[in-house]
């Protein structure tokens, strides 16, 4: 798939592309590929197709090269066709021929049939070749899978039909009309196909009927078409679509004198289909009907050479009036009225492609009519806006069906505007309707409809800028500027923001009427509005710096954005409101407050939610923008008291979690000491109850906002009693309350609640302990809150957090790196590991930054503890989950970049082997993507040479090897093998060796014999090392041989008691691999009994199969293995008894021992 962000300037891969294509085309079409040839040719075709796909969005870049690229492919097809026509019995290679047709079809798909067809051969003698080829009875072209080939040949015939020679010249003397009959029969044969063959057939027939020598056949075709249309059967739908395609093409390109008499018949046939239900429900049929009706109208009207050019602009900006058509009203055919009525109805069709086709057809007809007629068409289109608006009190009250009508009307207005059919007198009404259409957004269930209407409205305004003069648009300039700017900034959909920005740009560039147009455009250009957050929070306040836009943007946020159906839009809108108000806090915040208050009393909870969010942001604006504490407190109270307008019953309703969260956010943003001290006399008596509801709510967002409210309360006053109550309730409460209270502890300010810090720390330490009552979510919340709680008191109140407490908390975070909890959701322990990584990094940075202020820095963060933190994060950096590795990598690099603490002997807090770490992960690399295993693991395994990191690093690597994710397992295995190959087997020095590595693995096995989660990845590691040949060197070394013996013991000890099938299988593979070493095999051949005679039939069968494959491929010191293979293959290991399996196993061992 092509990269969406990839942009090319030239077809820079032409040489490579043409070389691959030439190599593919050089293959003999009559010979099947042998051996690896098929795969090689398939890969070549895949490369060609992928290259075309990469350039799909910029296909025009290949235009200079198309002739050199397409013609060899077409000539190859022509050669094949000529050969097969000359000798139909000759057999072609289906594989290579499929590659040829697939490549040619992808050219057509890539650049379009009209462009590629130009390079098809179109000589006179090609007609007979192509026609005979497609009619071969038993050829490959008749295969059902060769639809693309038939489509190509039909396009080829359609092109040949344009040759300026009478087709009768190709007929036999006694069979006049034979060629034309064959072409017509061929086109009719494929006219009912569901795929592209129908389009090729329709194009072929249309080219046939527009020729002077065969045009007379059109009448008979219309009669034939009428018969099939009259059948009205479901089986006729595809054929009718093909028939309509033929009529559409004929009406577009045929000379008028050739089809003049047939036009009424075509129009009558098409209009008769309106009453046929089997056809009226098909979108394509309605689309082609619209095309045909509009083209009929164009053909019966006199041509107008100046159509669409009533007023044109020169390069210097001057405007020229062109002479209009002198067509009189009396000369307009009567059929035009019927056609216009049908097209106006088509604007309300339920499908977009029908509406768009109708709009284009209507506009094309309008530009051929007298001015009065075209003005009536514009008025009729404008009248469509009011069809559903008469009974609607507001835009939100429109029925859903109004979307189709409004969209069709906007498209028609845009096409009419593009052709300059909109008169000055129509502009006020048009602008009024477009002002509404830009905000057309009707909620329908959990989503809304109307984005296409808004998009089309921006299209109309774009078109108006290209055709209208400055004088016409000047009265509407400021209104349009404000509306386009507001849509470009605040619309929910990215394509509409971009469309509005493009329309704004067109007006600025052509009219220069919009206030501060250039400056505003720079702030709302294509890229600025592409990211919603940037548009709302950056572009909006920048545009509002201009007074002409400020009030309109504010009104739009208050009346539209805050009431939007999408929660994320309301939240971003409230944040944008804050940024707007900070421009002129006194006037804008006052106006905003007056508008927001009525929303709180709405019956729609979306309005209430938007109003509460707005009040919260106004409170933040006052905190940021008012310096005087007294004035700030008074304004915050004015905002806070409006919370009482929302019923407490609405806030506490279980389904209104958004309102509950917003109410808690408002409390957090606007609570003052006066309101706290007022108690029950507060302007919002229920605010404590609201916070309590939020604390006990099960939705995370509500809990977060309630915790923030408690944080504000704790900063303003002593709330120890409330904190103690919550800590007590959490002991007997459920995991939801535990999680919520943990979040509160992280948000508290302990300056006025010092007595609660030690109790809060104890609560967090208890919360991270796994228990039956707790959940992973509650534990994660406790881990998140530990660094937050420390940051809230450190270094301001060192007496609250002595070094012992600090060590206890940091050690708890380090222990969080070993949380590997698993449930049906997967590795849920990774949630704890992630926040532990982040929290430890934060704490280390905090301690390093204030080290100079701490007399007991070393006690708070001993060097050994710091090294364990670095090692633990490094271990997470090589683990199996991409997101954990990515976060660990970011935090590890932060630790590397930290300046040493400002204490004596600060070199003790430098990560061991810091120079190596920097070289591996910071230097000589374009990116530091730790999620990319291919980049990370070859670097990480080199750290095994550093003893300090070896244990942690090996733990992480083994977990990654045991992963079932190929993108992790494959690169880590490859990296470890390559690293092991560089190590010596053993050494007298401290150098890391293969023996030392095996010792590390064996120690883990012997220390965790009862843990399958640890032993299985270790056994798996040994097996892939055996497969890679890394451990072969151990057999020749005395120390190495001793390790292999230990490994054999670990793999066979008590194996009959094991219950885990995977563990037994991995152990079996180890034993079989060890027997390949002669030194091991001589003394331990009996080990195979453990598996060939295992109590589990599945193990016996699997062992025999695996051993058979290994005996075939590896050297086990047996000259003739046929007897061993026979026993392994012929014994029914899965069904025989354990005793019989023991006898068969004994015979295998004897045969091995005989030659050993």
Automatic annotation (TrEMBL):
GO terms for biological process: microtubule cytoskeleton organization; post-chaperonin tubulin folding pathway; tubulin complex assembly. Keywords: Chaperone. The keyword Chaperone applies. HEAT repeats lie at residues 339-376. Residues 320-518 form the Tubulin-folding cofactor D ARM repeats domain. Residues 868-1063 form the Tubulin-folding cofactor D C-terminal domain. Pfam families: ARM_TBCD, ARM_TBCD_2nd, TFCD_C. PROSITE patterns: HEAT_REPEAT (PS50077). InterPro entries: ARM-like, ARM-type_fold, ARM_TBCD_2nd, HEAT_type_2, TBCD, TBCD_C. GO terms for molecular function: beta-tubulin binding; GTPase activator activity. SUPFAM superfamilies: ARM repeat. PANTHER family: BETA-TUBULIN COFACTOR D, TUBULIN-SPECIFIC CHAPERONE D. This is Tubulin-specific chaperone D. It comes from Ephemerocybe angulata.
């Amino acid at each position: 798939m092509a990269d969406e962000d990839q942009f090319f300037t030239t077809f820079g891969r032409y040489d490579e592309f043409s070389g691959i294509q030439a190599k593919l085309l050089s293959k003999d079409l009559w010979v099947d590929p042998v051996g690896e040839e098929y795969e090689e040719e398939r890969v070549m075709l895949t490369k060609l197709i992928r290259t075309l796909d990469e350039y799909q969005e910029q296909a025009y870049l290949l235009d200079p090269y198309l002739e050199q690229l397409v013609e060899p492919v077409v000539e190859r097809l022509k050669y094949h066709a000529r050969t097969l026509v000359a000798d139909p019995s000759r057999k072609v290679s289906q594989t290579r021929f499929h590659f040829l047709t697939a490549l040619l079809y992808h050219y057509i798909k890539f650049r379009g049939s009209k462009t590629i067809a130009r390079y098809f051969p179109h000589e006179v003698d090609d007609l007979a070749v192509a026609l005979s080829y497609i009619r071969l009875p038993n050829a490959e072209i008749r295969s059902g899978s060769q639809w693309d080939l038939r489509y190509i040949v039909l396009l080829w015939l359609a092109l040949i039909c344009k040759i300026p020679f009478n087709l009768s010249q190709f007929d036999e003397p006694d069979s006049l009309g034979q060629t034309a009959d064959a072409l017509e029969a061929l086109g009719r044969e494929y006219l009912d196909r569901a795929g592209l063959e129908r389009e090729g057939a329709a194009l072929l027939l249309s080219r046939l009927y527009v020729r002077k020598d065969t045009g007379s056949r059109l009448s008979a075709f219309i009669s034939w078409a009428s018969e099939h249309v009259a059948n009205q059967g479901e089986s006729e739908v595809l054929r009718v679509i093909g028939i309509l395609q033929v009529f559409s093409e004929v009406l577009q390109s045929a000379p008028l004198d050739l089809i003049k008499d047939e036009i009424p018949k075509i129009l009558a046939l098409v209009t008769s289909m309106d009453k046929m239900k089997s056809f009226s429900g098909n979108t394509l049929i309605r689309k082609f009907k619209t095309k045909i009706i509009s083209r009929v109208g164009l053909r019966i009207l006199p041509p107008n050479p100046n159509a669409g050019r009533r007023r044109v602009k020169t390069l210097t900006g001057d405007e020229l009036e062109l002479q209009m058509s002198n067509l009189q009203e009396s000369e307009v055919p009567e059929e035009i009225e019927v056609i216009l009525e049908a097209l106006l109805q088509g604007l309300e069709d339920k499908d977009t492609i029908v509406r768009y086709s109708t709009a284009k057809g209507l506009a094309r007809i309008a530009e051929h009519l007298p001015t009065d007629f075209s003005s009536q068409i514009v008025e009729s289109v404008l009248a469509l806006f009011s069809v559903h608006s008469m009974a609607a009190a507001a835009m939100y009250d429109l029925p859903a069906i109004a979307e189709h009508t409004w969209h069709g009307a906007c498209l028609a207005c845009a096409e009419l505007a593009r052709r300059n059919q909109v008169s000055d007198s129509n502009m006020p009404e048009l602008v009024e309707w477009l002002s509404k259409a830009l905000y057309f957004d009707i909620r329908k269930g959990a989503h809304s409809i109307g984005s296409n209407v808004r998009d089309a409205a921006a299209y109309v305004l774009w078109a108006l800028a290209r055709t209208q003069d400055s004088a016409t648009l000047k009265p509407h300039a400021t209104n349009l500027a404000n509306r386009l700017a507001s849509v470009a900034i605040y619309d929910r959909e990215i394509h509409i923001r971009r469309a509005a920005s493009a329309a704004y740009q067109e007006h600025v560039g052509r009219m220069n009427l919009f206030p501060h147009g250039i400056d505003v455009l720079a702030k709302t250009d294509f890229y600025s509005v592409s990211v919603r957050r940037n548009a709302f929070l950056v572009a909006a306040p920048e545009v509002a710096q201009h007074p002409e836009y400020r009030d309109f943007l504010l009104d739009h946020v208050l009346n539209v954005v805050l009431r939007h159906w999408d929660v994320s839009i309301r939240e971003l809108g409230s944040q944008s409101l804050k940024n707007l108000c900070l421009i002129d806090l006194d006037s804008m915040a006052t106006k905003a407050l007056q508008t927001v208050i009525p929303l709180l009393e709405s019956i729609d909870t979306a309005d209430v939610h938007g109003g509460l969010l707005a009040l919260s942001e106004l409170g933040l604006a006052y905190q940021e923008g008012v310096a005087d504490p007294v004035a700030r407190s008074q304004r915050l109270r004015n905002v806070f008291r409006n919370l009482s307008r929302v019923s407490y019953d609405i806030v506490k309703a279980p389904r209104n979690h958004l309102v509950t969260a917003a109410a808690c956010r408002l409390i957090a943003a606007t609570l003052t000491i006066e309101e706290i001290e007022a108690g029950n006399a507060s302007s919002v008596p229920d605010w404590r109850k609201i916070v309590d509801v939020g604390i006990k709510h099960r939705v995370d967002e509500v809990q977060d906002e309630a915790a923030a409210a408690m944080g504000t309360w704790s900063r303003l006053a002593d709330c120890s009693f409330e904190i103690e109550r919550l800590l007590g309730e959490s002991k007997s409460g459920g995991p939801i309350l535990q999680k919520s209270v943990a979040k509160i502890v992280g948000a508290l300010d302990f300056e006025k609640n010092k007595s609660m810090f030690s109790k809060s720390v104890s609560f967090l330490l208890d919360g991270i302990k796994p228990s039956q009552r707790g959940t992973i979510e509650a534990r994660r919340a406790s881990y998140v809150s530990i660094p937050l709680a420390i940051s809230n008191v450190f270094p301001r109140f060192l007496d609250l957090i002595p070094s012992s407490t600090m060590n206890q908390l940091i050690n708890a975070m380090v222990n969080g790196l070993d949380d590997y909890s698993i449930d049906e959701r997967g590795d849920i322990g990774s949630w704890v590991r992630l926040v532990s990584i982040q929290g430890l990094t934060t704490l280390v940075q905090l301690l390093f930054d204030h080290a100079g202020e701490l007399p007991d820095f070393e006690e708070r963060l001993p060097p050994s503890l710091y090294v364990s933190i670095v090692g633990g994060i490094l271990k997470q950096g090589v683990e199996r989950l991409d997101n954990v590795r990515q976060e660990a990598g970011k935090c590890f690099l932060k630790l590397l970049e930290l300046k040493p603490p400002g204490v004596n002997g600060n070199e003790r807090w430098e990560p061991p082997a810091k120079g190596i770490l920097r070289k591996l992960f910071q230097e000589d690399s374009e990116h530091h993507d730790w999620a990319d295993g291919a980049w990370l693991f070859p670097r990480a395994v080199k750290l095994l040479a550093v003893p300090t990191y070896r244990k942690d690093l090996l733990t992480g690597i083994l977990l990654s090897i045991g992963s079932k994710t190929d993108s992790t397992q494959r690169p880590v295995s490859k990296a470890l093998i390559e690293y092991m190959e560089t190590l010596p087997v053993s050494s007298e020095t401290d150098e890391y060796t293969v023996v030392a590595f095996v010792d590390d693995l064996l120690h883990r096995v012997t220390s965790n014999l009862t843990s399958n989660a640890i032993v299985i990845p270790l056994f798996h590691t040994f097996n892939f090392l055996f497969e890679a040949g890394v451990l072969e060197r151990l057999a020749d070394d005395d120390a190495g041989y001793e390790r292999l013996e230990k490994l054999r013991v670990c793999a066979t000890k008590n194996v009959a008691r094991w219950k885990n099938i995977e563990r037994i299988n991995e152990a079996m593979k180890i034993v079989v691999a060890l027997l390949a070493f002669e030194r091991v095999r001589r003394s331990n051949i009996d080990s195979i009994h453990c598996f060939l005679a295992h109590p589990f039939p599945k193990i016996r069968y699997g062992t025999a199969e695996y051993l058979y494959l290994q005996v075939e491929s590896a050297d086990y010191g047996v000259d003739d293995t046929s007897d061993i293979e026979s026993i392994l293959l012929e014994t029914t290991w899965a069904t025989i008894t354990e005793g019989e399996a023991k006898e068969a196993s004994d015979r295998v061992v004897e045969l091995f021992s005989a030659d050993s």
